[in-house]
Amino acid sequence: MSALSSAPPETPPPALVASPAPPSTTGAATGAASSLTQGSPLVQGSPLVQGSPLVQGEDQDFGLSRIAFALGKGPALLQLRRAQRAESGGDYLAAAATYRAAYRLWPALDSVLSGGVPLFVRAEAAGAGLRCDLHTVVDVGEAQRSRAVLAKGLLTAGDIEAVARCERGVAAAGAENEQNRTHHRKRCVFLNEPPKRALRRSAPEVLDKIQAHGVAACEREGWRRPGGPLRTLEGGIEALSFRVVEHWTYQEGGGLVDLRHNDTDSICTFVAMLSGGGEFEGGVFCTAEAGGENKEHPLAQGDVLCLLSHKYHNVKVVTRGVRRVMVIEMWEGGDSHAGR
C-alpha cells in the first residue's frame, strides 16, 4: 500500500503529495497493411471503415492511416508499410527502394516526424481541414507554475522486481537503444517497444498503477479545470497512451544536466525510483519552478513522481553508486512509440 498525502490546506487523500506551490485522438491504429491491394476501395481513398485491420490493428500509427486515406494517398501508405516490414526483416536494399517508391507517390512522407507523423504530412492535413493535432502545446510558463505530485511507496517490492525482470529480458534479447552511444555514464532500455511491449505484457498492473496516479494527480491539481494547463485535453489522463517506458541506469558521473529539458509532445511524465536507500548518492530529480528555483525531489524506493511533461526537469550528477529509475511518458499519439 502506498502512503499518500497532500499539501495543506486541504485534507490529503491517502497517497498524493504535491510539492509546494510556487509563488504567484489518439492516432488511428494500423495492423495488417499488407491486406491492402492496389484497386482496393481503401487504397483509392474512400473513408476508413471501423473494424477494418487498418483501424483496429494492434500497432499505432498516430493518425497517419486516417490522413492518408482522407487525402487519397493509400498507395503511398501501402509502399511505406512494405518498406517498414522490409527494414524490420533486415532486407535494407529492398527497404530503401520501397521507401523511395513511397516518397515518389507522396513526397510529404519524406520529412521529420512531428508527434509520430511526418511534419509535411501534418501540414497537408491541416491545409485540407483534417484534425491531426496532438495536445502538444502546453504553455511552458503554466507548466512551470504547476506542481509535481508524489505518490509515496506506490510501487511494491514485487512491482520493482517485475520491472527488473523485464529489463533483464529485454537486454538479454539484444534490443539495443542506439541513443546509448551518446549517453555519458548512463544507459536507457526501452521496456514497451512495439511489437512486443514487454512491460505491458509481463506486468500490466505496474503501468495501471502509474496511470491511476496520473489521473489522481490531474484531478487533485485541477490541470483540466478552466484555466488549467490541460484545460483543452479531451478525455483526461485516462484516455492517454504510454509513449515510452524507459529503464534508466545512472553510473557515477551520470546525470541530466540540461536545466531546460522537457519532454516534447508528451502530456505527463512519471519518475519511479527503483533503487533502494544507500545504493547511490547524488542523482536527485529536480524541477524548475516559476520563481527560478531548481527544486529537489528526493525519492525513496517505490516512490513515483508525476509532472507535466513541459515542466523543465533535470537530474543532478550521481556521485556514488548506481541509480536506477523507470521513466514513463504518456501522450495522445498512440501506445508504444518506437524509440524516443
From TrEMBL:
| Region entry Disordered, spans | 1-51
Q: Where is the composition biased (Polar residues)?
A: 36-49
Superkingdom of the source species: Eukaryota
Question: Where in the sequence does UniProt note compositional bias of the Low complexity kind?
Answer: 24-35
Question: Which intervals carry biased composition (Pro residues)?
Answer: 9-23
Spell out the protein name for this chain. Answer: Fe2OG dioxygenase domain-containing protein
Which lineage is the organism of this entry classified under, starting from the top rank?
A: Eukaryota, Sar, Stramenopiles, Ochrophyta, Bolidophyceae
